[in-house]
Amino acid sequence: MQSVLLLIFNSILLGLGLAMDAFSVSLVNGMNEPHMRKSRMLQIAGTFAGFQFAMPMIGWICVKTIADTFQEVQKFIPWIALILLVFIGGKMLIEGIRGKKEEETEKETGTGNLLVQGIATSIDALSVGFTMAELKVPEAIAQAVIIGVVTFGVCLAGIFIGRKAGDKLAGKATIFGGIILIAIGLEIFLSHML
After folding, report:
1. Cα 105 to chain centroid, rounded
2. Which residues contact 169 (CB under 8 A, 6 or more apart)?
């Protein structure tokens, strides 16, 4: 029983830590689209949660099967996150400086961009799969589910907060959001490289 509680507690803490990048991007999405529909909010939070669930499981599977090959790929993870987030953030920054219409804002949280955001913010979680190597299948799945659920809640909170700030920031939200995404990409990159 104690080991189950410890697994749950550790998974919640791990989920909170891993969800911070997704929280920041959710905040930006909320600021960018202050009148976002509830269905879109659930889609965004669900996408981030899905990736935060899947990436540790993929890492766990890789450790159990092709660990040597996957460790070679791991050194590219910070580069991938940096490129994806700088691309999205730079695009938002340019659009914010040029000025954009309300309909264009919704495209930024469209399916394609949302998938790129999900990958970029959860790529760190891939490495978590290595730390789960000693877990049995049910424990690994439970940990990944808890991480996903925590991420979902954290991202919904980020969107709500972002929507409130987006109303106040009006036209500057896209510029601010672009800067935040670029900063997140740089932080992920530098934290892995130093």
Report:
1. 19
2. 31, 176
The number of angstroms, rounded, from the C-alpha of 190 to the middle of its chain's C-alpha atoms is 17
Short-list 122, 110, 115, CA closest to 40: 110
Which of these, 133, 119, 112, 126, lies nearest to 65 by C-alpha position?
Answer: 133
145 within 8 A of 52, measured Cβ to Cβ: no
pTM score? 0.75
**What's the CA gap between 38 and 47, in Å, rounded?**
14
pLDDT at 129: 78
Give the tokens for residue 127.
Answer: 């490495």
Say which residue the tokens 């490289």 belong to.
193
Instruction: Confirm if 120 and 186 have CB atoms less than 8 A apart.
Output: no
C-alpha closest to that of 125 among 183, 49, 186: 49
Give the tens place of pLDDT for each residue, 150-167: 999 999 999 999 888 876
d(CA 175, CA 123): 24
Kindly provide the b/e burial profile for residues 104-132, where b requires at least 16 CB atoms within 10 angstroms of the residue's own CB: ebeebbeeebbeebbbbbbbbbbebbbeb
DSSP reduced 3-state for 66: coil
Which residues in the chain land under pLDDT 70? 67-74, 99-109, 167-174
